[in-house]
Amino acid sequence: MKQIVVGLGEALWDCLPNGCKLGGAPANFAYHASQFGFEAYAISAVGNDALGDRTLAELKKRHLNCIIPRVGFPTGTVQVQLDAEGVPTYDIKQDVAWDNITFTPEMAQLAQKCACVCFGSLAQRNDVSRTTIHQFIKHTPRGCLKIFDINLRQNFYTKDIIKDSLKACNILKINDEELITIARIFGYPGLDIENKCYLILGKYNLKMLVLTCGTNGSYIFTPGEKSYQPTPKVKVDDTVGAGDSFTGSFAAALLAGKPVAEAHRLAVEVSAYVCTQPGAMPKLPESMIAKIGNLHAHD
């Protein structure tokens, strides 16, 4: 039986200068995990509107399972501006469908069979979706990987949301800028990056902390080891969704039983490839997908 992987939270359209593309971290995460042969689901909500129709059609086209009820709010959109390096800034619309995901019996059933769930802080800006996210996590089995991909955007987070999420997860994924913000909110001044990471790891009893530092590489800290990978130099098309592809492929490799360092290597390779492609959900090359099945073939 295939293991079940769930991305839980915002489903939205990134409106880029060259048109609108389906995005939202949970769907991106689930899509990338699905490419490695896992039974992946996106859980969100869309409106009774044309973009809602397009969302469901798009996920179907990508063969991505979903539990996405339609609600009386517009489907989420984000205005994305890209700078000269292709790095995005976001204007995220409020009072939209994904702020209003209500917990359903179908979600509860899925949670009970879930091997890995990924959630962020953005979809917790409204208490309806926040309650659903925490309900879902409560229903997951003991061994489930619960990844908090923190994703601080605009002013859509509070200290309590972050603290409750850290208590609910067993893997934290964070970038270097977010780490500075968290250190400020929680009062961890003066510590170097590594000490901050180990402090959070220990304080919240996490299995792992994944730290991405853009072009300066990425780290994975566990209570027993540290893995570092440099960021490959590639010709960037846009960086939208690269982080989600990192998380999706890293989770897939862990679920396939790969050691942390090997899972980390694959995640870096996948996210570098996604940066060279337009949009957040490109199809990965077969050679990458084969690595989870055959990572040891060349040893």
Q: TL;DR?
A:
With 299 residues, this protein is α/β, with parallel strands linked by helices. It has helices spanning 25-35, 50-61, 105-112, 127-138, 159-168, 176-186, 193-203, 242-255, 260-275, 286-294, and strands at residues 4-8, 12-16, 19-23, 39-43, 46-47, 65-67, 70-71, 76-82, 88-92, 114-119, 145-149, 171-175, 208-212, 218-221, 226-229.
Descriptive key words:
single chain; 299 residues; alpha/beta; nine-stranded mixed beta sheet; four-stranded mixed beta sheet; 10 helices; 38% helix; disordered C terminus
Global shape: globular
Strand order of the largest sheet: 6-4-1-10-11-12-13-14-15
Give the N-terminus to C-terminus distance in angstroms.
28 Å
Oligomerization state: single chain
Helix and strand run: EEEHEEHEEEEHEHEHEHHEEEHHH
Percent helix, as a range, is 25-40%
Mean pLDDT: 93
Cα radius of gyration in angstroms: 18 Å
Q: Could you list the spans in which at least 5 consecutive residues all have pLDDT below 50? A: 294-299
E-strand count: 15
Main sheet summary? 9 strands, mixed
Content of β-strand: 15-25%
Briefly note the structural class of the backbone: alpha/beta
Number of helices: 10
How does the SSE layout of this entry go?
Blueprint: E1 4-8, E2 12-16, E3 19-23, H1 25-35, E4 39-43, E5 46-47, H2 50-61, E6 65-67, E7 70-71, E8 76-82, E9 88-92, H3 105-112, E10 114-119, H4 127-138, E11 145-149, H5 159-168, E12 171-175, H6 176-186, H7 193-203, E13 208-212, E14 218-221, E15 226-229, H8 242-255, H9 260-275, H10 286-294
Parallel strand pairs: 1-4, 1-10, 2-8, 4-6, 5-7, 10-11, 11-12, 12-13
Antiparallel strand pairs: 2-3, 8-9, 13-14, 14-15
Helix pairs in contact: 1-8, 8-9
